[in-house]
Amino acid sequence: MPTDPRQKLQKLLERFSQAMLVTRTADGHLRARPMALADVDEAGDLWFATARDSTKIEEIHFDRNVCVTFQDSSHYLSVGGLARCETDRDRIDELWQETWRIWYPNGKDDPALTLLVVEAHTGEYWDNSSVEGLKYLFNAGKALLSGERIEIDPEQHHKVAL
After folding, report:
1. Alpha-carbon distance 117 to 103, whole Å?
2. Averages of pLDDT over each 10 residues, the chain, 162 residues
3. How far apart are CA 153 and CA 135, in angstroms?
4. Domains in the chain, please, with CATH?
5. Burial class (CB in 10 A: 0-12, 13-18, 19+), 96
6. Alpha-carbon distance 6 to 122, whole Å?
7. Contact of 114 with 52, CB cutoff 8 Å
8. The Cα angle at residue 20 between residues 14 and 21, in degrees rounded to 5
């Protein structure tokens, strides 16, 4: 029985600790930067720690639409949504990681520390791992031999509304 695509996306998201956040600059250009993922909540929203006065926060004030991408050797994910800042000190306390101290020397009470939340609206995954990777190779070979376009199994690639 196939996995529910939304559940599969959520499960794949939980594999990652690093992402690339794409924002739009005030002059309309796209800009990507690496971010450490602090949490993925039940709704699929993504949580990051950042500095209140960072360029990405300025860009989000200009345009809240963002894209977050994830990749390893056999999994690729993309999440689109609206970004916002969250200053809830209880949530910061809950998510605090001691490794963040290199950016926030005053710890979880550092006034520069804020949370960046991406309210996920859409997600998309490509899973080329284990059985899914074998299915892909089989379907690719079949398409190559038949001269037809490859058919992708929904277990391997799916767009998800969140």
Report:
1. 18
2. 79 95 97 97 95 96 97 95 97 97 95 97 88 57 64 74 88
3. 8
4. 5-128+157-161 (2.30.110.10)
5. middle
6. 10
7. yes
8. 105
